User: What shape does this take?
Amino acid sequence: MKAGRRFVLVVAGALAAASGNGAERLIVVHDAGGTVDAAPYVERTEISDRRVGAALQSAREALADLRFGRLEVFPVHAGPLRAGPPALVRVAGLPAPVFAIGCDGPSRSWLAAHGRELRERGAAGFVVSCATRARFRRVGALAARLGLAVEPLPGAAFADVFGAVSYPFVAEPSP
Assistant: This one.
């Protein structure tokens, strides 16, 4: 038997075994002869509701990490930016304000103090330094409570484009 047919039989057998009803659901579409029953090669395992629930929860958590078709990668590095005093940068041609913070305590405090104003001005938010996805989620939850959204983006992009040297900072359109 050719390797391709053997593979199809093994996959079909595995699917039949996993379905719970076995061969009752399996429909043979084409048999070119020499068919071998896959049952002896497939280990049947009982899947408990608990295992299914745990697998679904794991999948939900993995899918929650997907945003706009990409997987967020941590840690997010600040690059040349350093935590420091809040700064304001004016940029010609910038359509709306942009702010950048880290996951550190001073950045979170700054966001809590200025979140309302940032929301009213329609600012887009970015986290430029964050060690773990869990810390990013905490900052994201704080931003959400303030009516803002933040996305992870390495700090080097802001240093290059806006000339920023520290975070938190706001880049706003120049008058």
In short: Residues 82-173 form one domain. Confidence is low (pLDDT under 50) at residues 1-23. Helices lie at 3-19, 49-64, 105-120, 133-145, 156-162.
